[in-house]
Amino acid sequence: MAVTVPDLLPGTLDLLILRIVAGDSMHGYGIAQRLKLLSADVLQVGESSLYPALQRLLLNGYLDAEWAPSENNRKARYYTITKAGRKYLAAERKEFDQLVAAIQRVLQTA
Amino acid sequence: MAVTVPDLLPGTLDLLILRIVAGDSMHGYGIAQRLKLLSADVLQVGESSLYPALQRLLLNGYLDAEWAPSENNRKARYYTITKAGRKYLAAERKEFDQLVAAIQRVLQTA
DNA sequence: TTCTCTCCCATCGCCAAACGATGGGAGAGT
DNA sequence: ACTCTCCCATCGTTTGGCGATGGGAGAGAA
After folding, report:
1. Class of B3-109 in CATH
2. Which residues of A touch B (CB under 8 A)?
């Protein structure tokens, strides 16, 4: 069963994107594929969710972008994480872990 | 630092409410308190998030409600989880765990 | 008695995030 | 020429949560 990310956990998309780009500069299409791959098809982003998210991240200064030909010689926009992006990623990731821990505690305890 | 639930993880509110009510029939105000308590103040629900959520759950048949005096002798609406609610809870919980696992995998792997 | 405090309910209007649908352009292979 | 895949992007809608707001009604204090 394939699930779109925010089906259950919205707000996590930015986090995932940043993490993927942090590993390697990529274009949007590639990010979507990589997400699907890494999550063994559990996670998926539609393009209409992805591109707005990228715009957001650009606007907030967490990503930089530049046009360059892709591996397939297409016009593509490559995203690179900024210093601020890394900082934000680290912070959000920590908060994510805390929240998940808290939620799981509630789910288990009662 | 106190965080409202959907600050990072919306969609989880229903799950938390159901789990809490599953443990014990409660009124709205009590649910909010219990959530705060169980999560050691990490999680919080405002009333303007809570009550609409409860309506939703009622409407979907996951909860039943009836009026009864509270422990403090106030007028209160007690919520009880239904059979369908338990089923839904179990399913969503499973999905939640899967998603979290997938996300964490992505966050760690790259 | 009145006043205030806490408990407990609920809605309205707003905002942000994600989604489906849609619409391209432009290599590459048939 | 045609189709396929790659790659970009926006528009309009829905959904969920939030801040502000507005009660009613016990209980203890003034």
Report:
1. mainly alpha
2. 3, 5-12, 15-16, 19-20, 22-24, 35, 38-40, 42-43, 92-93, 95-96, 98-100, 102-103, 105-107, 109-110
